[in-house]
Write a structure and sequence with these properties.
binds 4-methyl-5-hydroxyethylthiazole phosphate, TIM Barrel, 45% helix, eight-stranded parallel barrel, binds magnesium ion, 212 residues, binds ligand LCLJCK34
Length: 212
């Protein structure tokens, strides 16, 4: 099964990205989504090669944000696609069944569509405002997650749901209680000066139910 914590990378240059990803891997993250927006193909490809070899070294999953063809070319473990990116069923036709395809959702209907189209996991958000992403969809808050997860249960829709957007350590337990599977985080991991402790604390909360 997938790891419950996905790190979404940050950095304005190839070097910054590689540094941040290396630090996150060293601190115990084992799922990385490479997110490097508005860059040349050459730089994105160069970064992807570096991230792939780092993730192989740390036995971590490596998925690419947005770019299905780069994910295919570099033989990444998968891709994360937003509501305005390539359609999930098109991506599945290209990547086949062995690769991970994640899809962004903001509503129950988005989740229903993604499941029909063969998505592997959902990134549901945003939980709250975050400066990491521009043009955010409507904020869901805890009650938004609760309502959507309840609807999924009622309609017997089963797929791992990751909460995303402005999540901090103290949000994890209440979010997990809504029925989500895990979380995707960028800012607080990138900015932490105590990454190993933070990731340990996040994992304790994420896996609390499984341990009991
Ligand atoms: C796990 C996860 N969930 C949601 C997103 C957001 O994807 P998208 O809406 O395509 O926005 P960008 O990240 O491309 O700006 C994500 N990346 N990861
Ligand atoms: C990519 C993305 N999509 C919705 S919120 C977000 C950014 C999440 O990053 P952070 O954990 O820094 O808020
Ligand atoms: Mg996208």
């Amino acid at each position: 099964m997938y790891n419950k914590l996905q790190y979404i990378s940050q950095g304005n240059t190839i070097e910054e990205q590689l540094y941040n990803i290396h630090q996150a891997l060293d601190a115990g993250c084992n799922w990385v989504q490479m997110r490097f927006k508005d860059q040349s193909f050459k730089d994105t490809f160069t970064l992807a090669e570096g991230v792939k070899s780092l993730c192989e070294e740390y036995l971590a999953n490596f998925i690419v944000n947005d770019d299905l063809h780069l994910a295919e070319q570099i033989a990444a473990d998968g891709v994360h696609l937003g509501l305005t990116d390539t359609k999930i069923d098109e991506a599945r036709a290209i990547l086949g069944t062995t690769k991970i395809i994640g899809g962004t959702a903001n509503t129950f209907e988005d989740i229903e569509n993604h499941v029909k189209n063969g998505c592997d996991y959902i990134g549901l958000g945003p939980f709250r405002f975050t400066a990491t992403k521009e043009k955010l969809s409507p904020i869901l808050g805890l009650s938004g997650y609760f309502d959507i997860l309840q609807k999924m249960k009622k309609n017997k829709i089963e797929i791992p749901v990751y909460a995303i957007g402005g999540i901090t350590l103290r949000d994890v337990s209440p979010l997990m209680e809504t029925g989500i599977y895990g979380i995707a985080i960028s800012g607080i991991i990138t900015e932490s000066t105590e990454k190993e402790i933070l990731i340990q604390q996040l994992n304790e909360k994420l896996y609390a139910k499984a341990i009991v």
